[in-house]
Amino acid sequence: MVNKFLSKLKINNIAWSLSMKRVLWALIPSILSSVYFFGWRSLFMILIVNIFAYFSEYLFIKNSNKKVHSSVFVIATLFVLTLPPSLPLGMAVIGVIFAVIFGKMVFGGFGRNIFNPALLGRVFVCFTFGPYMMGEWPAPPLGVLKGFKCWIVDGLTMATPLTDNSMALSPDLIMGNVSGSLGETSALAVTIGGIYLYWTKSANRRIINWVFISAIFMQTLLWLLNINEQVLDPFRAICAGGFLFGLFFMATDPITAPKHKEAQILYSVFIGVMTILIRNFSFWPEGVMFSILLANVFVPITDYYFKSRKKRKKIKNAS
Amino acid sequence: MLKGEKKITTVNLGKDNPVFLQILGICSTLAVTNYLKTTMFMCLGIIFVLSLSNLTISFFRKLIPSKIKRVISILLIASYVTIVDILLKTYMPDILKQLAPYVGIIIANCIIMGRVETFALNNKPIISFIDGLRCGIVYSFVLLIIAFIRELMGNATLWGYPVLGDWWVKWGIMTMASGAFFLLAIFVWIVKNKFTKEDNGVE
Lengths: 319, 203
Fold this sequence. Notes:
Helix content of chain A is 62%, strand content 1%. Chain A is mostly helical. The relative contact order of chain A is 0.11. Chain B is an all-alpha fold.
C-alpha cells in the first residue's frame, strides 16, 4: 500500500525486509503507550521524523538503482521513542537527519554501520541540545483517557523513576504512568513487543538473555553491598528508565551486534554491567545508551578475534 | 622557474589545500576554532611562522648537511614560534590566555614541517616565501570558515558580539571538539566532491 502511494508520487519504492517489519510490529505497543501517556503529539512526531528520515536516505541513493531500505523507518521510530515528550520538533528532525546520514549512509548504507544509528542520533541531540534533553520530564496527565484526549502534556515536571529513589514499586511503574522518554516508560508495552521479537527469533535470544542476567546480577550486587543511597532494588531498576527498551530493540540490532557466539556473550555482558555502572556511578541518570554505543566500538575487534581463533582451532584439529 | 612561480602564486582554495587533501594540521583545526577571534590570531601566527621559516631555511638550504636538516629546521621553526609567543604575551595577553597551549603547538603543526621538508629545502628563497604565505592563507581559510560556523552556532556570537537573537538555540556540540570534527568532515566531503569532479573533467 505504501509502495503504491509512493509510486504515485514517482519516488523510489521501499525495500521491505521481514525482520525490519517485525521490529516495526513489535514497536506498536510502545507507540500506543507513548500516545496514551504523552498525547497525540508523539504520534505526529514519529510521522514527521519518519518522513525526514526517508528523504535523507533518499538523497543518498537517488542516483543509483537502490531502494530505500525499510530499516530507516526502524531507526526513525526507535529514535523518537527515546526522546523526551516535550522536545521541539525541529530538534528531533535534526537528530534523525544526523542519525541517518552520519550513523548509516556515510558508512555505505544498510548493513555497514558500526554504531546503532538511532542511539547515535540520540547522543547527538543529547549533547547539542542538552537542557532540552535532560531538564524537562513532563508527567503523564491524570484521568482514564490520559493522552488520548490531549495534544501534548502540560509542563508539570516530575522526577523520573531513575532519579527519585522514594518512588515505590507500583503498578504505575510497570504500566508506564511515570515521566520519562516517550516509548520507554511503559515496561509492559515494551515487554510485549520484546516477547514478540524473542518468540519470532527476530532478536537474538542469546544477547537478550545475557544482557538481562548480567544487569540483574550487577544491580543485585550493588544493592546488597549498599554502595550509596541512590541504588535501586533490582526489579525497580529493570522497570525504570530505558533498560528494557535498549535490551529488546537496541542491543539486539542485527547489524551492530557481533556475529560470533563468544563475542556476543562478551558484548552482552559488557552492556549489562556498564549500564548499571553508569547509572550508579556517573553524572548521567541512564546508561543504556552509552553502554550500547561503547559496546558497539568493540564489536569488530572481538568478532575478528573469535573468528580467527576458530580458524586456528580448526587447523590444529585437522593436523 | 617562472612557470613554477605562477603555479604557486595562484591561491587555489579548494585544490591543493593542505587541510582538505592531505588532512594536515587538523589538531589545531579542532582545538582553536571555538571563537573567530582566537582563530584569527592563530592563523596570523601560523602564516608568520610558515612563511618566514620557509624563507630562512631556503636561504641556508645549501649549507645544511642533509643528515641534520630536520634538526635545524625544527630549531628554526621553534625560534619563530617563540617570537610569536613573546609578541602575543606583550601585546595581547588576553588572547594568549585562551590560546595558551596551542601557540607552542604551532611547532608540531604538520603543515609547517611538510612545507619546509618538501618545498623550502629544494627551492629558491622568494618562491619558498610565497609558498609559505599561500599555504598559510589556504589553511587559515579553512580554519576561519569552521570557526565562523562554530561560533555562530555554538555561542550565537561573532567576534564576541551577539549576532543571533535569543530565539537561537545554542548547539552545545559546536563548542566541543567533536563539532569541529563533524564540520571538517562535511567540509572535506563537499570540497572533494566538487573538485575531484573538476579534475576528472580536465584530464
